[in-house]
Amino acid sequence: MGMLEGKVALVTGASRGVGKGIALGLGEQGATVYVTGRTVAGGAPTTPLDGNVQETAAEVTALGGHGIAIACDHRDDEQTRRAVARVVTETGRLDVLVNNVWGGYEHFWDGTEFWVEAGFWTVPIDRWDAMFQAGVRAHYVTSVAAAPTMVAQRSGLIVNVSSDAADKDDAGVPYGVAKAATDRMIACMAHDLRDHGVTAVSLYPGLVRTESVLRAAEHFDLSDSESPQFIGRAVAALAADPTAMRLTGQVVRSAELGQHYAFTDTDGRHPGTNGPPYQPPVA
Asked: Is residue 204 in a domain?
């Protein structure tokens, strides 16, 4: 039996990438995992990358959990509210909310020559809007919709997937400011939720081998990188920890959680420990 048997989770933006990996990590531990995304089977692709919410849900189930797909564009507040309401209506509870969905990455595949951008004044204004609408605002609206259920059951975990870009001056203004905002959001939400038994944290992954990163692997040092599923194992460990409240309002890092809870990546490695480097699979 998995550590999260009987628990219900909602992971936003889980068609692929980190969101998919988080869903799989929760599924490994037996959770019922609702996954949201814009990309659906048979629908128009939203990126040139593979993956859709139905595939993610099926993989969650194959790993021992129960995966359920919800088509949702989190730029639309009403779609977000309906997604959360469906989870609560169908299960009567919500134990884990992972705010992973994000916007503003379109320039990696829409033909924009982002590498010629030098200074925030050369970056399209809509980059800021995308990151705050489909990222920061989506995290907030989903949390607002989920909090009443968690408060009523006096338990729950909210995770904002963030980045150490929040602390870096060279991360780009829209991205750095948006990630700092998600961290500050968690600190303030944790203050309100603490007395109701609900934990809220920001999670910093390391370099994650998402589909887009692997597509441009020649530009990255993947030697100490993490699989998307490793991030899921970090969330699962937090969700199963009855003392996780000690971390509420804080930033936690996937590699450090791996060391603390003694879980490994899918290849058996321990990212962040100067262990053996990642070896890509042989073609």
From this structure: yes
